[in-house]
Amino acid sequence: xLLLGRINFIILALLVLVLTACGTSPKSTLDEYKEAVLNxxxxxxxxxxxxxxxxxxxxEAVAHAKLVNEHYxxxxxxxxxxxxxxxxxxxxxxxxxxxxxEFRTIMVVESLDGEVILSVNREEVRAPLERAIFTxxxxxxxxxxxxxxxxxxVIDNLIPxxxxxxxxxxxxxxxxxxxxxxxxxxxxxxxVTDDAxxxxxxxxxxxxxxxxKIFAGDEEITDLSNENVGYGPIFPNNTNVYFTGEYEGQTVxxxxxxxxxxxxxxxxxxxxxxxxxxELTRIDRLVSEQEENEKNKxxxxxxxxxxxxALYDAFEIALKRNTRERQENILKDNFMNDNVPEKVxxxxxxxxxxxxxxxxxxxxxELVE
Length: 369
Known about the structure:
5-stranded antiparallel β-sheet, 30% strand, 9 helices, alpha+beta
């Protein structure tokens, strides 16, 4: 009996060795995965999910456990894994199975030559940075992605998980805080959170206002141009935005658009502005009046110059007459109602002597004054 017992023990031990050599059981492997996820055991997840192609990092393991725990309760995770185990056992030969997420596969379970292998696929994750340059830390490294010319940029190649990258963004030389959240349980897996927007304007400018400038609050933002998509970054917080410009030498301003706090997920803000049509019309009318006044002034000056020239000529002739009556008759045609001012006659009286005719230019100047 003792010998028989030893023989049975040896047979059982050999059987265990054979089963072990043949591979791992689906249940034991998936139970390890379940416990690692529920307990957020990153070391175990790294061991189970890493292979020659994908080396899972600690931060990725944390993100992966968070994803599974958000999508599954412990009970529903048990059911999903049990279903995979049954499928493996019901299929002869090699097979591949997925642990499904909301929109994407969370993990792949393969049965190859009796061995159960768990794996995850990396996916290129793009985020709508929308012309911002984003600097953040991940896996112990500082990474910078994005540029000021494109809306979407690659964040990283990530395994399924829920991530939150906090860092600093830069646009047109202005720095601001930014968070990029990545959630493989959502259809649009990336969400960018920050306080910056790019303003895009439609300005009614039928009157051709020139030298336009853009203001947000009390700061001019004309130089914060992002190609043809607008101006930014702007940080809405009950902020007034408007245009100023020059029209016919006067400074004019549009109406004011008020920006409240930013709606997350929206980088571009569109506002319609217009200059005060009544004010521009008033300026046009004022300019027209000024032009008409200038025209009349020039006409009067021209007419006066003509009349003065005629008066000069008559005055010169009058000075050559040797009697007051003859001098006055010469000058009458140049004055209204033939009334020659006494001052003019006084000049003539003082120069009845023809020897003083050489002083006529001095007399003309005095007469004009």
